[in-house]
Design a protein that fits this description.
By secondary structure, this protein is of the alpha/beta class. The protein folds into 3 domains: 148 residues, Rossmann fold (3-Layer(aba) Sandwich), CATH 3.40.50; 68 residues, no CATH class; 63 residues, Alpha-Beta Plaits, CATH 3.30.70. The strands form 3 sheets. The protein has a 6-stranded mixed sheet with strand order 6-7-8-3-9-10, with helices on both faces. A 4-stranded antiparallel sheet has the order 2-1-4-5. A 4-stranded antiparallel sheet has the order 12-13-11-14, covered by helices on one side. A hairpin with a 2-residue loop joins β9 and β10. α3 packs across α4 and α5 runs parallel beside α6. The two termini are 42 Å apart. Bound molecules: adenosine-5'-triphosphate and magnesium ion (MG). The site of adenosine-5'-triphosphate has 13 residues, from β2 and α1.
Length: 307
């Protein structure tokens, strides 16, 4: 029995195809990522799976329930953390959780217990009576994720759960997502953070222009482009990417204060780099050879450069 089974799902908005005939399955206990650039169709996919948008074609099953034919049953199984969600800012943290508990018809004693547990887990217990208005962005997002967990979901949908948050909140939210996932909950999260997908997900679907262009475990996706090794180099004095496109280097990208050279033969390029530094009165501060990473796979498949 799958947690999610999507077949041929498509969404058009006035003739524009936002999601284009996608099919995939997610198992219980699996942490599944939808990775893609802005506008890829991730949120539209989540909205269809959670019964907010009606697909133009195709079906989606949540557990045994067709989300279109049995929306109430399907929704009982899921927790949802929407993109740019909001808590009620004039209510306290605990009131927000209790309200969700009430909506799900959880009896009073039980919902207080659940709310308090979640507040502890998310590091907000001390602030439980404070209005959410006074919370930092990271604290607000923690409450929103906690709200998605009030009904003990079997499936948790998270749309960009850590986007734009402080390091501490990101770490806490990722840890808790992993923890709930370890208990057997299926987690479907969208992200355009490649490292997040790499770290968290059992499997990743890479979306671009509404289509799934690859779907596999991160390690397997990386192996599909084994040939793309690169060298990351930092010079003492500034060097423009154009200056070091040597023969055998397919591309040079600026990555922070370093330059990344894509090449199939790093062992031949490294001496060339050293010689270049020497002859131009420059110094190499650091140099690393990098195996292909998920970003390389992503860029190759989406042909989108994020400079
Ligand atoms: N209600 C709508 N009406 C018209 N077009 C829409 C609507 N919702 C989404 N779209 C379009 O569908 C495409 C996919 O949007 P979607 O929000 O699913 O992307 P996304 O992958 O979630 O992007 P992001 O990473 O920016 O959140 C975009 O081109 C968007 O403009
Ligand atoms: Mg989105």
């Amino acid at each position: 029995m799958y947690a999610i089974k999507v077949e041929d799902l498509t969404k058009q908005f006035n003739g524009f195809t936002a999601v284009d005939h996608i099919s995939f399955m997610v198992n219980y206990g699996e942490l599944f990522g939808l990775l893609g650039p802005n506008g890829a169709g991730k949120t539209t996919t989540i909205r269809m799976l959670t019964g907010i948008l009606k697909p133009t074609t195709g079906t989606a099953f949540i557990g045994e329930y067709d989300i279109q034919k049995k929306p109430l049953e399907a929704k009982q199984l899921m927790g949802i953390v929407p993109e740019m969600a909001n808590a009620y800012i004039d209510l306290s943290a605990i009131r927000n959780l209790l309200l969700i508990g009430e909506l799900y018809g959880i009896q009073k004693k039980k919902r207080i217990e659940k709310a308090e547990n979640l507040l502890r887990l998310f590091g907000l217990y001390e602030k439980r009576y404070q209005k959410v208005r006074t919370f930092s962005r990271g604290m607000k997002q923690r409450i929103i994720v906690a709200m998605g967990l009030m009904n003990d979901p079997q499936l948790l949908f998270l749309d960009e759960p850590t986007s734009g948050l402080d390091v501490e909140s990101v770490r806490l939210i990722r840890e808790l997502i992993t923890e709930f996932n370890d208990k057997g909950i299926a987690v479907i999260l969208t992200t355009h953070n490649i490292e997040e997908a790499n770290q968290l997900c059992d499997r990743v679907a890479i979306m671009n222009h509404g289509k799934i262009v690859a779907i596999d475990r991160p390690e397997k996706l990386k192996r599909t482009i084994q040939s793309t090794t690169s060298i990351e180099v930092a010079f003492d004095k500034k060097v423009e990417p154009g200056e070091i496109i040597f023969k055998g280097v397919s591309e040079v990208k600026k990555v922070g204060d370093k330059l990344r050279l894509y090449t199939e033969k790093p062992e031949e390029i490294i001496p060339v780099l050293v010689k270049y530094a020497g002859s131009s009165g420059n110094k190499i501060i650091s140099l690393n050879t990098l195996a292909p990473n998920l970003e390389d796979v992503f860029l190759k498949l989406t042909k989108k450069r994020e400079e």
